[in-house]
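Methods — Computational structure assignment.
A single polypeptide chain was analysed. Its primary sequence is given first, followed by the predicted tertiary structure written as structure tokens.
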Amino acid sequence: MADAPPSPTTTPEEVLRAAKQMLADGLVEGTSGNISGRLPDGLVCLSPSSVAYDTMTLDDLVIVDLDGSVVSGERSPTTEKDLHLGALRRYPELGAVIHTHAVYATMFALAHEPIPAVIEEVVVYVGGDVPCCEYKGTGTADLGDEVAAHLADRGAALLANHGLVTCAGTPAKALHIAALVERTAKIVWGARAMGATIHPLPEKVNRDMAGVYRYIRENP
């Protein structure tokens, strides 16, 4: 049996860059949301709790092990660390997790309704519909387990009554997925507001493009 490929890794600089970009892209406000990146030594770089993205520096980031114990950093890690670590522990092919409060995606999260993958690129980059997790308390290990279960074959999941989580090999790719999901949610919302019927993609297209997602994810 062939050895499994090594887990993708990133740097604190990439984590900080993506954190600032998700603010610039309007996916978060103030200190909401959080981000993580897997480091080459098996540790994880997390955004800190309650620090504004526009003033955040490398010194504000927190390094933890996969059990959540702080290894370095002067600040406390995000209170949602279990949300990140649950996915990174379970899926070695992932290198980053991002949690945002994107407006249109969160509208679907409030309705506990999945965002349908009615645009081809969503199937390619997300793997299919964006599912909605069952409600679990913010910052709990139960939420981490719930989210990780929904990310088994998807690059994104909705947090009921809360927001959006995306995952990928790097922070930049996870951020791209977050922007794509938010754009799709806005398009679906707009089509429904028009009173239009939203037609699903042909099943063969879904199958083929979901296969592309699986290949990309398994070969980061």
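Note: The chain has one domain: 12-218.
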